[in-house]
Amino acid sequence: MPENSTILIVDDEMVSRYTVEVLLAQEGYTLVFAECGEEALEKAVKLIPDLMLLDVMMPGMDGFEVCQRLRANPRLAELPIVMITALDDRDSRLRGIEAGADDFMSKPFDRAELRARVRTITRLNRYRRLIETEEQLVYLANYDMLTSLPNRNLLLERLRQTLTHACRSHQNVAILALDLDNFQMINDGVGHEVGDNMLREVAQRLTRTVSSMGATVARLSGDEFVVIFDTNNLVKEVSEMAQLMLDNISEQMTLSNHEVVITASIGISVYPSDGQDASVLLKNANTALARAKAAGKNTYQFFTTEMNKVALERLILENQLRKALTHNQLCLYYQPQIDSNTGHFVGMEALLRWQHPKLGLLSPVKFVPVAEEMGLIIPIGEWVLRTACQQNKAWQRAGFPPLRVSVNVSGRQIYPANLLQTVKDALTDSGLNPNYLELELTESMLISEEDNQKDSILAVLNELKAMGVLIAIDDFGTGYSSLSYLKRFPVNTLKIDRSFIRDIGKNEDDAAITSAIIAMAHSLRLTVVAEGVENLEQLTFLQGQQCEIIQGYFFSPPISVEDMTHMLHKFRNKSLINCES
Ligand code: C2E
Ligand code: MG
Ligand code: MG
After folding, report:
1. The CATH fold of domain 6-142
2. Which CATH number fits domain 152-304: 3.30.70.270, 3.30.420.10, 2.40.10.220, 3.40.718.10?
3. Site residues for ligand 1, CB cut-off 6 Å
4. Residue 411 Cα to ligand 3 middle (Å)
5. Beta strands in 307-452 (DSSP E)
């Protein structure tokens, strides 16, 4: 069988070149000759031969240098090189190995050996190329040429693997089918080249959006993409990811000097609720995709209506919450805090409410966590602080005895936002004395993992204390519940969570824990507030434990400014305890 391999023979001696030519003549190789190092390099780059027979001893550039230079060229780094040395020249062989030679032969040639060696090396080389070609074929079978993303084949394989794993570990998997809106118009309008570039750009944007979340993107065909995402926090994380994908795709792109904007639609199915195997899940994701297109495009839809409802409600809530502040829909309610001994007002807690145009008065439990996730809690928290300070000052100006107002602060406000400046501004603008402002923090804010964060929170609290602002720990007992760390922070007040108060009288443990917390707090010279006091039994128990301040429905729920003004009038210099009991 004729050999197709190309062999480059490098030798300055004409006789040697001729000898090799004669010896290999019948083997069917393509023989190419070079007389010096420079010529060898030039021809090697041009031809990419299958084998080089390289003489060491040459005037000018010797064989070692040729070898080194070839190895420096990535395309020739794998070229088999056999060095021709003088018989038994051990030093040359060592240098040859260092320079990157694969094998050695000595002159004068042994005919049989030369033929056999050349045959073996060229055959191995052909075999290697075959493997490379096969690897390329495997690549082609699994990846999309245009975008380098996994194609349908690989997607299905990965999806099956993911589902097997999810089945074992009881995980959910979301399948997001994405299709560009009106892509055909781009293709027909500005041409296929722009269309191709757009698909590449979309592929990159998708990869950037989802890869940090450990999701896989694939291109199925045309403008159809699929993302596989395994998570347990389905509605929230998947909705967020889908929205982020849509947002990122719809940002303007510049393609071949054209400014273009494209949107996409997404359909989502979820394992195991929407299907058990890959094909059903893909089919259902596509059904949801069709619904997203029908719903006006540039949107996402879950396959199940229940999930759609949850996702939609959240989206609506987010959009409306953005407007709540600017449309003056937020307001503060105030709940009295009463001295357990005298029954007199000592303060009040400001509690946020959202007067929703359709849903009525909404509790902060419904929207504060969303505002925190969206970062909206920062402007909202600022508004709360200003409003509470202004209102408190207004009551003082109206002639009521000065009271302390407690304001809830979210962890998001304290770091990295500038809480200190916000508090200063709220106090300056309202003219409220800092002694009449208390900030309620939760335990988790003080127990930060990172030392530098802990230090900066400590610094902020120390400055607040220096200004005269009071600090309370809210919901004590629901978190880490350690009083020891409180010593490090300038805290004035401890608010026992209402879950402990609730079962006083019913549950001995809760009563015992409550007494212990009060005693320990007192040993740290902290004032104790009991939250959620609803009946006389709880009040009597807390009075017995010397708990200083009582807050709860027993005296009043949180009430509007008007109702609070009325209540302040009614109980001016009067005890609420004597009246109630
Ligand atoms: P919190 O600071 O622990 O507020 C006390 C919550 O307990 C209030 O709920 C109050 O209405 C309720 N409560 C008071 N007394 C009783 C009682 O006797 N029985 C029962 N069952 N409940 C009582 P609300 O107003 O719904 O506030 C819930 C949470 O929302 C607050 O818990 C606080 O963590 C957060 N929050 C309220 N306003 C703000 C704010 O302006 N900013 C921030 N970041 N969070 C706020
Ligand atoms: Mg509170
Ligand atoms: Mg609380």
Report:
1. Rossmann fold (3.40.50)
2. 3.30.70.270
3. 335, 351-352, 363-365, 368, 377, 381, 384, 408, 410, 440, 474-475, 498, 531-534, 551-553, 558
4. 14
5. 330-339, 345-356, 360-362, 404-408, 437-442
